[in-house]
Queue: 4 jobs
Job 1
Amino acid sequence: MEVILLWLFLILGLVLLCISFKKPHLKDWLLCYLTAAYFAAFLGELVVYYQMLSYPVRLFPLFQSSVLYEHLLLPLVCIYYYQSSYNKGILTCLLKALLYSSVLAAFEILLEKNTDLIHYISWYWYYSLTSLFLFLLLVRSLMWLMDDITGKRENSSGS
């Protein structure tokens, strides 16, 4: 059952990734994806290394962490969050980050209670909620900073 779920998540993730890259601003979406994947992989390895949670059933058993989640699904959610908060105010970005992280945390709780895909050791649902919220804001802030730097370079080169 769990392996079938992982394959469904992989297929769904790849389809949604293709759809998300078809929208304008491909460079921004790709940069957001790669930034999120980089940080998610690093943080995911730390959480598993310090035995806060485990992934008993994995699509890629060579790794202790969830490669599918850290390299595809969470960065994909970051793209959709970034797209939905693109050119929006701070309050809207905060509320959308809370909404996205709440849905992800609720889904993670369901998976933890009903499958062997994730197992909390010294981890609690509110850690997931808080860390996902902060993660989305971190990636969004980095993207804002990169946009700001790029915009300043473009404006200063025309002078």
Job 2
Amino acid sequence: MANSCLQLCGFLLSSLGWLGIVIATSTNDWVTMCKYGVNTCKKMDELLSKGPWEECVISTALYHCASFTQILELPAYIQTTRALMIIGSILGLPAVGLLLMSMPCISLGNETQSSKNKRAILGGVLMLIVGMSSQQSAYSLKRDGVPGTEPCTLQETDGRILSK
């Protein structure tokens, strides 16, 4: 019973992780920026949002996005990030399928426990590859940043937060 519960927990957590990777791959809100300063942008409601696919301007009545159409003009780490996130999204589906078919509550015909164990190991290895690819892409973006963004440091003085 404990083994079944542990396997079900692992399946649910890995499926949620894969779903998070798919959602993160498709969104463009990886970096939110402001041209003028934190207080001014809060008053004007004008923000810039960037991701690996598009650059968006978000305002009160406007949400306009411009796609990065020239793939080869982008820096190599952005191209690598895109490729790793897509690989993670694609490999996650067969991994979830293999893990689902290896659950103890599901039996496929007259199969043995050793074939279920092999399927579970293969699904687990695929999930590890999915996790490592998304982790590496997130690390490269954290290290190098999204193109056109400058890091903004906040300084707190007398209870107020000012941007440098």
Job 3
Amino acid sequence: MSKSLQQLAERRFPEMIEDLMLVALGSWADHDWHTFDRQEVNCTAQLYRWLRIAKRGSPQFVYLNVELEYLNLTPAMLAGEESVVNAQRPDLSISIGETGIHVECKRLLTSGPWCHHYVHKGIQRFVSSSYGANEQQGMMVGYIQQATLDGLLGSVNGFVEAHPMMGSGHQLATAQPPASYGSRHRSHHVRTSDVPIDLSHYWVLLGESLTQAD
């Protein structure tokens, strides 16, 4: 890719990844959210599948690269100052050239531990810079495993407000326009030793799950 084309693509990157996600979710919805089961890893495999299909289906996405779970090496790990054994593994990444974002996926249900996990094993990883170090954007996908959205935003925001690294200023706000596939939210996070990061949250209404295994 030429330098000028790379710069143009990077300027459009936020818009491009949002369009890619919306096309992928729309196609998955058209196939009735088919997945082997509702476990997180199998849902994410299908999301990866539809992201790749969306990428191949439109020239505007030709330069985007979609990767399934990979090793996230921190600057300290690359400098040999921290063990790679402790490296985190985001579920997905979407990039173009040197510009990219991490995507973390979690299941959501008002009862049980999943809303807590969404915050403490999802959002926290961006706030602590385990994911998205020196980056200004990140993305989370929530696989809703109940019949409606009722109670989910309040539950997640309750855990955000109570989290020692976050508080009320980090809570999720519903984005417009309404999402046909579930709901869409945004959150802004000031980090103590890193640039602030904005997270886009895509919550996909898959329907009721048969089990709630961790």
Job 4
Amino acid sequence: MLSFLSFTAHWLYKDFGLQNRVLQTKNFTDFYSGDLIRSVLEELSATWDITSHIYVIMRDNGPNMVKAIDESLFEGKGCFIHTLQLAIKASLQVVNVNDDLTSARRIVTQFNHLSTVQEKLKNIQKELNLAEHQFV
């Protein structure tokens, strides 16, 4: 399995224009521990001479990344989207949620194949002065 650590910089220009660049990508050939990640991050920041310009490091929530940043010179923040993705994935493992999603998909599929029902929905939305919506 290939594993990479990408070192990406994000900054604002004086006019607050957002800029970003991938500065370097490091290939890990072996298991990468928190200590290894920390040393690579510190090495990369020193190589690019930007250590004093790093205000926060956005990271995923893997234990090795948390350890690496917590034990480094940097402040780290967990990525909200990664946290949300993990929560959604965990919720889909719950049997009732998965069954409900399956049922909802079947209903929407059936609904989308019946033009008379779609027409009825459109008419009801018009009567109630609602924007026209469709099931997806």
